[in-house]
Design goal:
This protein has helices spanning 14-24, 32-42, 45-56, 62-73, 91-103, 118-126, 166-180, 183-189, 202-216, and strands spanning 2-7, 29-31, 81-85, 110-115, 128-131, 137-139, 158-159, 193-197. By secondary structure, the protein is α/β, with parallel strands linked by helices. It has a domain at 4-116 and 179-216: P-loop containing nucleotide triphosphate hydrolases (Rossmann fold, 3-Layer(aba) Sandwich), CATH 3.40.50.300. The strands form two sheets. Strands 2-3-1-4-8 form a five-stranded parallel β-sheet, sandwiched between helices. Strands 6-5-7 form a three-stranded antiparallel β-sheet. β5 and β6 (137-139) form a beta hairpin. The radius of gyration is 16 Å and the shape is globular. The termini are close together. The structure holds BIS(adenosine)-5'-pentaphosphate (AP5).
């Protein structure tokens, strides 16, 4: 049983690393951003509520986000642990997650902060293409798909996220600095924070991440 949180600014590589880690560990990845985008695609009330916040690059209110993740966490595939990607994003979300896990006799075992410079974040967000069906991510330069415009894994169309415009990218980074960066302190105090160098290539970052997981068990 293992519960892991991936922390990092927008474009740091949380989704990319969580997906690779999921192939190695027998636990699912829970991405709050993917859950919101799926709700939006399905046109549910949750998706419609989230849309205006996401379009601006702001955080969706804690209450809505926590309820959505709590529902996901209650599903059977999460019983042996989860890789949290993009959640928690505020101290209130982290405290809610701690409470939720403790009712299940669990706790966050490892929080990994993926450190990347602002210049690299903007380069990565600017070249990102995302698959329509399952959110697999590619990069024009650093991780290109084999057939242009088509996801290697499920054959679906690739698109650029609406919140990847230059203005929204900057807003998301600012929101991260204001509201999410303080979370590092939350996990540091618990003695479970590990920092890794996210400037390396994708597989080198994954190597460091797996080493951190091995050391924490
Ligand atoms: P979300 O979907 O979580 O977006 P994000 O945090 O902004 O993170 P990203 O998905 O942009 O980046 P990433 O770190 O996963 O990087 P990736 O692996 O894709 O959130 C979107 C919105 O939803 C929020 O703005 C908010 O409105 C709402 N939301 C979500 N969660 C919320 C919450 N908990 N509370 C409130 N609101 C919430 O990589 C980026 C690119 O770089 C890719 O192209 C990739 O191929 C490339 N790349 C990755 N790693 C490397 C590497 N090492 N070298 C070279 N290229 C790399």
């Amino acid at each position: 049983m293992m519960d892991i949180v991936l922390l990092g600014a927008p474009g740091a590589g949380k989704g990319t690393q969580a997906e690779l880690l999921r192939e190695w560990l027998p636990i699912p990845r829970v991405s709050s951003g993917d859950l919101f985008r799926a709700a939006l695609e399905a046109g549910t009330p949750l998706g419609l509520k989230a849309k205006s916040y996401m379009d601006r690059g702001d955080l969706v209110p804690d209450q809505i986000t926590i309820e959505m993740v709590a529902d996901r966490l209650a599903r059977p595939d999460c019983k042996d642990g989860v890789i949290f990607d993009g959640f928690p994003r505020t101290v209130a979300q982290a405290q809610a997650l701690d409470r939720l896990l403790s009712t299940m006799g669990r706790q966050i075992d490892l929080a990994v902060y993926i450190r990347v410079s602002e210049q690299t974040l903007l380069e990565r967000l600017g070249g990102r293409w995302t698959c329509r069906a399952h959110g697999h991510v590619y990069h024009r330069l650093y991780n290109p798909e084999q057939v242009p415009g088509i996801c290697d894994i499920d054959g679906s169309e690739l698109y650029q996220r609406e919140d990847d415009t230059p203005e929204t990218q900057l807003r998301r980074i600012q929101v991260y600095l204001d509201q999410t960066a303080p979370l590092r302190e939350h996990y540091l105090k618990k003695g479970i924070l590990v920092e890794i160098d996210g400037e390396q290539d994708i597989m080198a970052v994954q190597g460091d991440l797996r080493a951190a997981v091995r050391q924490s068990v």
